[in-house]
Design goal:
11 strands; about 15% strand; alpha+beta; 2 domains; Glucose Permease (Domain IIA)
Length: about 400
């Protein structure tokens, strides 16, 4: 029993790291595939950009996003290479162990064969048994000879099994080394691409710096559009909260109850809010694309003394005509049109709100109920840019959507 437990423990020590390594490799492969997809999408957007100077700011944003994705891709490749090298070391160790076992078994088997060859005449075996002093001794000698024969057969079987395992490990080692070589070539290629992109980034920064006045005018216009969006969404949410508070107050008075003078929610809103909050980190992305502008306050990438307006959401570059989908069950609060953002759909989920903007067509109307994954509209091409802007609010406070959406 103790021996069996010891064997089981040793097996777990060998298998668990291998399982964990395999899981890590699969996760890295998935991340690498997504990053390569994002880079390809950004490349398509860059190819669609017009070559005139007005596209320089957007091109810079895309190039910066591609550099970020490329750096993550290289880091993932480096990590994969380290795991492959670890696997090669483990495999080589197992191969050395099997080779040593094979050599030992072969040596022992050789001795048995040589001993049996010297006594290959069956009459010697018979005489060895028949010359016994007693029946007991004869049985013991017969048992010894039979055991010797069994040992030879067992040893031959072990040699064959070990030889087969050796071949499997040799093939595995060859495969791992080939994968490692391929990954090294990929890292070299990605680093070369990264250098080209950094050179393009420097060129764009230089271009934008030379004609500062012109580009700052374009920047100011975009900033005004963003600030107008921020004000409008905040106003819409505040109006929604006030309407909910009045409805709840009216309901309370109708029942003869008292209100505490604060914003309240109906029972169904509370339930929906709880369901929405419970899915934090698991909500689906509204579109498939690469994030090019992140949540929060940022400095301008070129004019570093310029603070950009608060970004209350995330902007993604997407395929032309991409469909925007609801991230959770809810109700369409309002549809508005704003400069630079075209049609915008605001959806309420209890005390939470999601905004889908830069839409060309809208498939819903105010008051409609939507379900997770339902298409709310298609993304528009604005100024040559195929981009989608998404926001998520808890009451009157904007949230970082990337904390709520699936990684």
């Amino acid at each position: 029993m103790r021996k069996a437990l010891h064997i089981l423990f040793l097996t777990m020590l060998v298998c668990l790291p291998a399982y964990g390594q395999k899981t890590s490799m699969k996760k890295l492969e998935s991340q690498r595939a997504q990053l390569e997809k994002d880079i390809a999408l950004i490349n398509r957007q860059l190819a669609q950009n017009s070559k005139n100077s007005s596209a320089a700011m957007n091109t810079l944003t895309l190039v910066r996003s591609k550099i970020s994705a490329r750096e993550k891709l290289i880091a993932g490749c480096d990590q994969t290479l380290r795991l492959l090298n670890d696997s090669i070391s483990v495999c080589q160790g197992e191969l050395n162990r099997l080779q040593a076992r094979y050599d030992t078994l072969s040596l022992y088997y050789g001795r048995l064969i040589r001993g049996s060859y010297k006594n290959r005449d069956s009459r010697i075996w018979y005489m060895y048994v028949l010359s016994s002093d007693s029946m007991g001794q004869a049985f013991r000698r017969f048992g010894y000879l039979r055991s010797l024969s069994a040992q030879m057969s067992d040893q031959a079987l072990k040699i064959r099994e070990t030889s087969a395992r050796l071949e499997v490990e040799k093939e595995r080692l060859t495969t791992l080394r080939n994968e490692a070589d391929e990954m090294r070539r990929k890292v070299v290629k990605e680093r070369a691409s990264l250098q080209d992109e950094e050179a393009e980034h420097s060129r764009l920064v230089s271009q934008l710096s030379k004609d500062r006045k012109k580009y700052q005018q374009q920047l100011q216009e975009k900033n005004r559009q963003k600030e107008a969006l921020n004000r409008k969404i905040a106003d819409l949410i505040r109006a929604q909260q006030e309407a909910a508070a009045k409805a709840a107050a009216g309901k309370g008075k109708a029942k003869g109850g008292k209100t505490a003078g604060k914003t309240t929610s109906t029972e169904i809103d509370t339930k929906l809010s709880g369901e929405f909050a419970a899915n934090k980190g698991r909500l689906p992305w509204p579109v498939e694309g690469a994030v090019v502008e992140r949540f929060g306050k940022h400095k301008h990438p070129v004019y570093t003394n310029v603070d950009l307006p608060q970004n209350n959401g995330v902007t993604l570059t997407v395929k032309r005509g991409a469909e925007a989908k609801a991230v959770f069950n809810g109700k369409v609060t309002q549809i508005v049109v704003l400069p630079g953002y075209n049609q915008c759909v605001l959806v309420s989920h209890g005390e939470y709100f999601t905004l889908y903007s830069k839409l060309k067509t809208v498939n819903v109307k105010a008051g409609d109920k939507v379900v997770t994954g339902q298409v709310v509209g298609t993304v528009d091409t604005i100024g040559g840019e195929d981009q989608f802007h998404f926001e998520l609010w808890k009451g009157s406070t904007p949230q970082n959507p990337e904390n709520w959406l699936r990684n």
